[in-house]
Amino acid sequence: LDVSIASHSLITISTFVVCISGVLCQDFAALMPQNIEALSGSCVAIPCSFTLGSGYESSLTASCKGIWRKGWRRVHVFDSSLTGTGLNTIQGNLTGDLQQKECTTILNDFTSYFNDYFCFRLECDNALKYNFPGRVTIDVKEYPSKPTLSPATVNVMEGTSVSLICSAAAPCPSLPPTLLWTPTLSDSVEDLQETPNQVITSLLNFTASHVHHGEKISCTALYKRQAGKSDKSSKTYLTVTVLYPPKNTSVSVSPSGSVLEGSSVTLTCNSNANPAVKNYTWYKIIGTEAVTLGSGESFTLDSKASDSGEYCCEALHALGMEKATVVHCCDQPHLVCGQRLGHGFTPVPRLSGPMTVSHCPVA
User: Fold this and answer.
1) Integer CA distances (angstroms), 218 to 9, 62, 180, 181, 239, in order
2) What separation in angstroms does the CA of 120 have from each of 50, 84, 138, 182?
3) What is the largest CA-CA distance in the chain?
4) pLDDT, tens only, 244-295
5) What is the DSSP string of 155-173?
6) Strand-pair partners of 363
7) What Rg value do the Cα atoms of the chain yield, rounded?
8) Which pLDDT band, with edges at 50, 70 and 90, does 227 fall under?
9) Are the CB atoms for 38 and 90 separated by under 8 Å?
10) Of 177, 240, 271, 324, which is the most buried if we count CB atoms within 10 A?
11) Which N-terminal stretch is annotated as signal sequence (predicted)?
12) Mean pLDDT across the stretch 312-316?
């Protein structure tokens, strides 16, 4: 009988059960991961527990030791009774309490030489000596796997609260990876948390703004290793998509300098929005009324004296609308031209200002 228990995408716990003549099934069982990914030069923890057959509980004494055997030859590579002596092929520590049926073990300075599967054996100074049939395969990597981001994509409206979770494998409990966000986006980064299934997580919170659109957010997992070996790192990232209404709408004028009557002048409306603005409408302001002139991103004037005046561009799409205004002057000395956004008017001195405007000729 083989029963699979889902724990995490990185670790699948399996229960290995044997039936012995005269003993009920499911009495002798070992629970351990089927697969563990380890980083070369670092330690690796093998979560392990077991159950015993009927009548053997009393045999589980302080004399018991745990042994890990490697490969099909079942070579003994770790014996808990030899911890600290230097006699084990792989140095480590059995951190579980065998009398509590816990056989979790940490093996140190693991290298690709030990790529294989491992089985657990329990030996006590009595009749209890048992080779559990379950096995764990340890796959040693020279570089750590990339951390994972959840959600994998961010596509939100401006103003939405966003929470990103970065998760990275932590096969070595004493040297868990450090998770670093770039950029941090300043709102908050919660402390690292280690979950029971050997995973480290970090949470980044921020409020989506139009300035975040197109931003690449990365999470880097930095792993320290044992025996003075250099650090290793891996990175994953996503690109943020933020939907927002028109912003920073302005009108540019070409040519930008003084114009003579009869010269052609093109007004162009510029607006920052996502999705991009496709609906532009042009108006001329006459007194308190706005006369519609046409549509499109650009509008051309012949610069007759009658064309002097205030022109308004309206940028509109499903998420909102914004307007910008420019004063165009033709052969009218001493008039100061400018632009305005919304309902406010900001004079723009000739040959200066944050936006490109037409300028009055100087007498």
Assistant:
1) 21, 49, 8, 6, 9
2) 10, 20, 14, 42
3) 115
4) 999 999 998 888 766 677 778 899 999 999 999 999 999 998 888 889 999 9
5) EEETT-EEEEEEEEE---T
6) none
7) 36
8) confident
9) no
10) 177
11) 1-25
12) 93
pLDDT in tens, 284-296: 988 888 899 999 9
Tokens of 216: 């690449």
Q: Do domains 148-243 and 255-347 have the same CATH topology?
A: yes
CA 33, 34, 37, 40 torsion-angle sign: positive
Distances (CA, A) of 137 to 65, 130, 230, 327: 22, 20, 25, 75
- Quote the percentage of the chain above a pLDDT of 90: 63
CATH 2.60.40.10 fits 2-141, yes or no: yes
Name residue 348's amino acid.
V
DSSP letters spanning 240-267: EEEEEEEEEEEEEEES-SB--TT--EEE
Amino acid residing at 352: S
Handedness of CA 346, 349, 351, 357 (dihedral sign): positive
pLDDT of 224: 95
Task: Report the Cα 152 to chain-centroid distance in Å.
Answer: 7
**Confidence at residue 329, expressed as pLDDT on a 0 to 100 scale:** 62
Pairing outcome for strands 75-79 and 65-70 = antiparallel
112 φψ region: left (φ > 0), alpha (ψ -120 to 50), beta (else): alpha
CATH 2.60.40.10 fits 148-243, yes or no: yes
The yes or no reply on domain 255-347 and CATH 2.60.40.10 is yes
pLDDT digits (tens, 9 = 90+) for 165-180: 999 999 999 999 999 9
Q: How is the chain split into domains, by residue range?
A: 2-141, 148-243, 255-347
